[in-house]
Design brief:
By secondary structure, this protein is mostly helical. It has nine helices and two strands, in the order H-E-H-E-H-H-H-H-H-H-H. The longest helix has 22 residues. The chain is globular, with a radius of gyration of 25 Å.
């Protein structure tokens, strides 16, 4: 009884000790398939503490022991989560190391450096092209490169492509930025993505594409 009273006291009286402002780091909410002790709404609530595009959900497949439930996947089958955590930490460390500025190299003395070669003569056909044509063309090729069928294929929902024939990735990104993740998930439900696993996979694939600059 004292243990139960303490648990219910925490549930009734708990208030966060910090303001609900985005954390300065990515947030990953983990759960096991079939865990009926964590609702999708509880899992998605962590998105409120993450910056835009820095939240994702990861679901683990587990086979609980006969007397247990999927809620205890961290205790009974920790290997899958440990490998996931090791991979995430490795990627984070690589990203941090890449962000550290490298020491500047000292240039040789000016007297020992050969004079720079003269610039090549402009091609006659390029005189009418604007100076930024290359960068504009590059950005045009990159932006919007990901189509909805490709996004659904990455989320392993390619067989659901007929449901979104009248949508586009840019519309989905705009909705996600404007109205937030709950509205985006509600839109997926209205399109016919009734499985939670499908909605999570699509949202994760879209977030990954945003981080990689493919949308």
């Amino acid at each position: 009884m004292p243990l139960l009273r303490a648990d219910f006291g925490i549930l009734e009286a708990y208030t966060p000790s910090r303001a609900a402002t985005p954390l300065p780091c990515p947030v990953v909410a983990c759960c096991a398939h079939g865990d009926n002790r964590v609702s999708p709404e509880q899992l998605m609530a962590w998105a409120a503490l993450s910056a835009e595009g820095e939240f994702r959900e990861v679901m683990f497949h587990t086979t609980p022991l006969p007397w247990s439930t999927p809620h205890r996947y961290l205790v009974e089958t920790p290997g899958v989560f440990q490998r996931f955590l090791a991979r995430e930490c490795t990627e984070l460390l690589c990203h941090m190391n890449a962000a550290v500025p490298k020491p500047a190299t000292v240039a040789p003395a000016a007297a020992t450096m050969p004079p720079p070669p003269p610039p090549p003569a402009p091609h006659a056909a390029s005189t009418s092209m604007p100076a930024t044509s290359t960068s504009i063309e590059t950005s045009t090729n990159v932006a919007g490169a990901l189509s909805l069928p490709e996004l659904l294929a990455e989320a392993k929902c390619h067989d659901r492509a007929p449901l979104v024939h009248s949508s586009s990735v840019s519309e989905w990104v705009a909705l996600l930025k404007r109205d937030g993740r709950p509205a985006f998930l509600k839109m997926l439900v209205s399109l016919g993505f009734e499985k939670l696993s499908e909605r999570q996979a699509i949202t994760n694939a879209l977030g990954r594409a945003q981080r990689e600059g493919r949308v």
